[in-house]
Structures are given as C-alpha cells and as structure tokens.
Amino acid sequence: MSFFKGMFGGGRTYKQSDNRGTYHNNIDIASAYWVQRNVKQKFEPFLLYKFKDEADAVRSLLDIECIRIAEDTEELICTEVLIYGYYPVEGNEFEAVLCGEEMSHHLFVNAKKAFIKNNGIKLNELEPAKDTQSPAKSKTKQISVQNEVKFLKETKQIKMGHTFTYRIYKGQTASSAVSFLEKNPVTENLLYIIVETPEGNYGRDIQGIYKE
Fold it and tell me: Quick check: 204 and 210 in contact, CB under 8 A?
C-alpha cells in the first residue's frame, strides 16, 4: 500500500490493532452494506461522496480526525467504531464513505468539510442529531463503569454452503465490548465475535469492529 505512504505527516504512529472500524475498500462490500441497511431499516448517519481522483479520496479521509494509516500494514484504519473507506466505481471515479451510529455531529461536520475541501461531490448524506453530551463527559462516564465481558457460547451456521462461526459474549457496557473487541482481532474469514450489551450488540469480523 505504498500509495498511502507520504500522504501523512509526523506525530503519533498507529498500528492495525488500533483499528476499531469496518473498512469498505471495494464495491461489493459497500453494496452489501447498503442492501442490509435497507433490509434492516436501520438508517445510521453517513456521508457518501464521489471523487474523480483517488488521491483526493484518500486525502479527504486522512483529513478526518479518526482516520489514520497503520504503520505496520500501511492500511487506512479508523479509531472510532464506524464504517469508513473508499473504493473505485464506474467511470474511473471513487466513492468515499464515513458511516455509523456512533458518529457525532462534530465528526460529521468535520468530515463533510474534509470531503468538500478535497474536491468531493456529494452523493448523499444523513446528518446525526446534535450532541447532547460532550465527548469528554461521555468518556468519563464510560471509564467510571466497571468493564467486564464473559463468554456465553459458540455457534456454527451453514449458509450457502459455507460454515459461519459465531462466538457470543456478554458485556456490561458498550465501552467494555469495544475494548474487548480491540484486544481480540479476527484473522479468519467467516468468524464473528459478538458482544451483547444493554446498549446494543457489538461485533468484529475480519473487516473490523461494527455495531449490529
């Protein structure tokens, strides 16, 4: 992924293990997400922009505070539980996306500025509600809760001739689930780690961390 190298400056370095997001890097992954979104009628905030130049698409993502490049893999990563990435489409153009229930209004506004600054053309977007609690207060609340995740069961399902493995855990909070998933990367296809919490279910597969 030498294409990314040289497109960012100094400062803190990141590794692939810092990734908390789900990377959309081809049209098949992206299309599958939009189909499931409509089926589930779960309409998360998002930005979807088109770019005529790949470098502009990459720069727009790297201008977003939670998107970085992993030093060990030279891949784009996201430090928030969001869908992110870019991919080629027809006409030698590229689409870039940032999406997810966890997107704050502040992040949405900054991401929109980044896309527009780098010659992005809006395809569609859904703005989240304005934040009712500051990120600092929210993080303080999460830290004050004792984090604990316990294993419940492992199940296997056969779909379209393939065996899908689901390892199910139970967590006390969303923050405990995300912390657990960060420490347990998935390197196998068709393996899913799911943590059920009162605040929703969080999962991780080979693409990254997501919220169901």
Answer: yes
